[in-house]
Amino acid sequence: NAGVTQTPKFQVLKTGQSMTLQCAQDMNHNSMYWYRQDPGMGLRLIYYSASEGTTDKGEVPNGYNVSRLNKREFSLRLESAAPSQTSVYFCASSEWGGTDAEKLFFGSGTQLSVL
Amino acid sequence: RKEVEQDPGPFNVPEGATVAFNCTYSNSASQSFFWYRQDCRKEPKLLMSVYSSGNEDGRFTAQLNRASQYISLLIRDSKLSDSATYLCVVNSNTNAGKSTFGDGTTLTVKP
């Protein structure tokens, strides 16, 4: 049971480059999320998708875009990377509305460095 | 003031010790509460939910005090494997996307 899979695990970009982080879940969850975690800090929500076909901004959306491709997949795009976007990115999903509502299941993370 | 605040620690305790972490939250409308565990450079994993009546899972006990707006996590008989960062998570709404994370409390259990 794979759970939440995100790729790549590591990425180094130059300022101004673009890239897309991929995320897929096989738990049939309705909701998916992208978080970033900076050293010594908790997770901050970038964007989320409460259900297929919807996306909403979180706490720190500037510089990012997302696509909920289908129920399984939720991608995060950096159009023009900046050093301030150096961080660890986590994708997560939850069975919103079910008995496990609000419980988050995370992917293993992407370490992104922008030079 | 942060919406969810935790003592960052670090807490350094010997094996077998009992250790407690507190977490305070500012939004009185918060509805659900969780403790997650995060190992170094790994993803957070749900440790336990926190209910108003308090709940226990083996050596771990979580409690909620709505009047004072804090939740706690008690770990008894600490093991080396308990060394991790413990994240307090508060959900303020019935809609998705409303989970707020504390910055975490780091625990190191030493032989």
Biggest interface and its residues per chain?
A-B, 27 and 23 residues
| Alpha carbon gap, first and last residue of chain A | 36 Å
> Which descriptor suits the 3D outline of chain A?
globular
Succession of helices and strands of chain A = EEEEEEEEEEE
What are the low-pLDDT stretches of chain B, counting only 5+ consecutive residues below 50?
A: none
Q: DSSP strand (E) fraction of chain B?
A: over 45%
- The secondary-structure element order of chain B is EEEEEEEEEEE
Number of helical segments with 4 or more residues of chain B = 0
Q: Quick one: biggest sheet of chain A? A: 7 strands, mixed
pLDDT averaged over residues of chain A: 92
What's the average pLDDT of chain B? 91
Largest sheet of chain B: 6 strands, mixed
What spatial form of chain B do the alpha-carbon principal axes imply? globular
Q: What class would the helix/strand composition of chain B place it in?
A: mainly beta
H/I helix tally of chain A = 0
| Poorly predicted tracts of residues of chain A | none
Query: Can you count the beta strands of chain A?
Result: 11
What's the oligomerization state? heterodimer
Distance between the termini of chain B: 37 Å
Q: Give Rg of chain B in angstroms.
A: 13 Å
Radius of gyration of chain A: 13 Å
